[in-house]
Specification:
Order of helices and strands: HHHHHHH
Number of strands: 0
Helix content: 55-70%
Largest sheet: none
Radius of gyration: 29 Å
Bound molecules: zinc ion
Number of domains: 2
Strand content: under 5%
Structural class: mainly alpha
Distance between the termini: 79 Å
Length: about 200
């Protein structure tokens, strides 16, 4: 039973590999440009996608099998690394491989924005108060300044804010201070003073 399942799995993986090779980059580009499905080259691709509905389903099913194939993850990581290296050497964005990378960076502007959006979504999954436990700024969720609970930017902001407050305390801060002082005095008079 298990052996059968494995054989079927192997067969499918081999078919996928064959398909992948025959689906050359040139055909892919042609289909994408003309708005055809990049898998069957017959149907129109779905809006905003490169595959037709039925091919997209087939691809998803195949990928589900491929994903659990032993050694797949390692091979994928290895090939991803090679692709990124090739793109970087060509001065292209390592993410999309289409547009030139931004000056001094490895991704293009569009991909930088897309990455930031994904990062933001991920951050939103962690409650604010737990962010510092993950080494993330509790204000914005970016990486913290080492040893602090805030990122570089928000740490700087807080420092300037504090400096300006102590230089020119707000009305409310003065009131608070006066209230505290009164409370301490009262406690002292009633013999509750802790000092
Ligand atoms: Zn198709
Ligand atoms: Zn890009
Ligand atoms: Zn921050």
């Amino acid at each position: 039973m298990l052996r059968n399942a494995l054989n079927v799995g192997c067969l499918i993986v081999n078919t996928i590999l064959r398909n992948t090779v025959s689906r050359s980059a040139e055909n892919y580009r042609w289909a994408k440009q003309k708005g055809f499905c990049v898998r069957c080259f017959k149907e129109r691709a779905m809006v905003g996608q490169v595959r037709c509905a039925s091919c997209s389903e087939k691809d998803a099913a195949e990928y589900a099998i491929l994903k659990v194939t032993p050694g797949y993850k390692k091979r994928k990581a290895e090939s991803d690394r090679r692709v990124r290296e090739k793109r970087r050497n060509a001065g292209l964005c390592v993410r999309c491989g289409q547009r030139p990378a931004q000056e001094g960076r490895v991704v293009c502007l569009e991909c930088k924005i897309a990455n930031a959006r994904i990062q933001k979504k991920r951050n939103n999954e962690i409650p604010r108060h737990e962010r510092p436990n993950y080494g993330l700024c509790y204000v914005c969720g970016e990486l913290v300044k080492p040893g602090f609970r805030l990122c570089e930017k928000h740490y700087a902001q807080l420092t300037t804010m504090r400096a300006s407050f102590s230089a020119s305390p707000t009305e409310k801060m003065l009131e608070d201070r006066a209230r505290k002082r009164r409370a301490t005095m009262l406690a002292f008079q009633e013999g509750r003073c802790e000092y």
